[in-house]
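Support request from a user on the community tier.

User writes: "When I paste my structure tokens into the form, the page sometimes reloads and wipes my input. The last time it worked, I copied everything first. Here is what I submitted, just in case something in the input itself triggers the reload:"
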């Protein structure tokens, strides 16, 4: 396992700011403005004609948002990046920009549930067909990608945490001429840099680890200059799901500690995963770090995983007895969280990927936060003891 970003790279990230506007401030300012005025008529003409590049209107470009975009692009080893109002805005924009009616998309199974719902509703109405494949089965992926326009990946996948050989999947997509897109929210660029593995577009729910403090909902897409320009020019400008300056500022703050936080989440979650695996009342632990080896390209693991409880555990009592693990969706912040599978299965929203992919009502998903491994383990042990009949 490598250490993710080197120390020098982290220092470079901390130093990322717009010198001209920051008065030498170590933290970039929040440029909370909707528009930017021109010096004179000629400058306006130069800008509108495309001869000069400058800030005009914050829907398409804002200095604080730009600082975040440049930091993230550097971390993902991408030429450029574009921020969005949410992870879902990043997902929908990335997919819609590169498909047309009549096209077919291939997606790995067990993608983030709202991505699954986007594919089953809006994309379906746009006459874009989506087929699902097991991302661990390279032959099935190769067959499914024949004639497909776009390959939508997520690794590890949501809930089941299936970790794929992303480089191998990207190569198959390239062979078939399909645009490859990956949701890298779980691993973050600290543990997985899909651009270096041959993926075209890397997106994040920045609401998770990039922000890291559960105080912002945001998204971002990184890739080649050309593809990012198209996303900025079409999806960002016309669909309009832009990232705000204050949210972008919170994200730049989160990125500075990303590497340190990820290593702490990794260590704690691995230890808790191992201890859960050793228990009789835990029948299965879905954590890529507990396998013999990680797939190529994934150099570490994060704090989110799921496990199955035996019939002797009352899941409601277990959840209600936990004190440090709070019941709640999302993840990636300081706090530890739990989501019971049986509640997700009872969710009204349709289409429901939990049913489509056979999620077990005996499973729970936890996010291991930064409260400390021993305190979190005591919490889990006490709640399991209380939940036994
Ligand atoms: C939360 C999440 C999203 C959606 O992001 P939002 O910022 O909530 O819109 C996408 N992918 C994954 C893996 C997520 O966990």
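"...and here is what came back when it finally went through:"
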């Amino acid at each position: 396992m490598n250490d993710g970003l080197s120390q020098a790279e982290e220092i470079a990230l901390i130093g990322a700011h717009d010198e001209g506007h920051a008065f030498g401030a170590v933290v970039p300012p929040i440029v909370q403005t909707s528009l930017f005025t021109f010096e004179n008529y000629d400058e306006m003409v130069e800008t509108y004609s495309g001869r000069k590049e400058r800030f005009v209107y914050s829907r398409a470009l804002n200095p604080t948002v730009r600082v975040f975009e440049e930091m993230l692009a550097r971390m993902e080893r991408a030429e450029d990046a574009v921020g969005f109002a949410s992870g879902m805005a990043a997902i929908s924009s990335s997919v819609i920009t590169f498909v047309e009616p009549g096209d077919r998309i291939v997606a790995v199974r067990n993608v983030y549930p709202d991505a699954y719902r986007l594919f089953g509703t809006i994309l379906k109405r746009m006459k874009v067909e989506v087929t699902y494949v097991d991302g661990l089965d390279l032959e099935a992926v190769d067959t499914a990608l024949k004639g497909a326009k776009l390959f939508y990946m997520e690794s590890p996948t949501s809930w089941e945490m299936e970790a794929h050989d992303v480089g191998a999947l990207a190569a198959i997509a390239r062979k078939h001429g399909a645009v490859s897109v990956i949701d890298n929210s779980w691993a973050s660029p600290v543990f997985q840099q899909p651009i270096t593995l041959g993926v075209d577009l890397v997106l994040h729910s920045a609401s998770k680890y990039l922000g890291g403090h559960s105080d912002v909902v945001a998204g971002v897409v990184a890739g080649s200059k050309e593809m990012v320009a198209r996303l900025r020019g079409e999806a960002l400008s016309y669909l309009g799901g832009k990232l705000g300056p204050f949210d972008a500022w919170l994200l730049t703050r989160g990125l500075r500690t990303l590497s340190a936080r990820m290593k702490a989440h990794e260590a704690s979650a691995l230890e808790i995963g191992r201890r859960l695996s050793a228990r009789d009342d835990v029948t299965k632990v879905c954590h890529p770090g507990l396998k013999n080896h990680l797939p190529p390209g994934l150099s570490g693991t994060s704090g989110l995983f799921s496990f199955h409880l035996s019939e002797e555990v009352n899941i409601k009592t277990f959840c209600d007895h936990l004190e440090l693990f709070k019941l709640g969706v999302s993840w990636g912040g300081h706090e530890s969280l739990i989501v019971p599978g049986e509640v997700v299965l009872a969710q009204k929203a349709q289409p429901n990927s939990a049913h489509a992919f056979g999620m077990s009502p005996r499973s729970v998903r936890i996010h291991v936060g930064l409260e400390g491994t021993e305190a979190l383990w005591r919490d889990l042990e006490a709640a399991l003891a209380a939940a036994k009949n």
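Agent notes: The reload is a front-end session timeout and is unrelated to the input. The first helix runs from residue 7 to 14. The radius of gyration is 22 Å. Escalated to web team.
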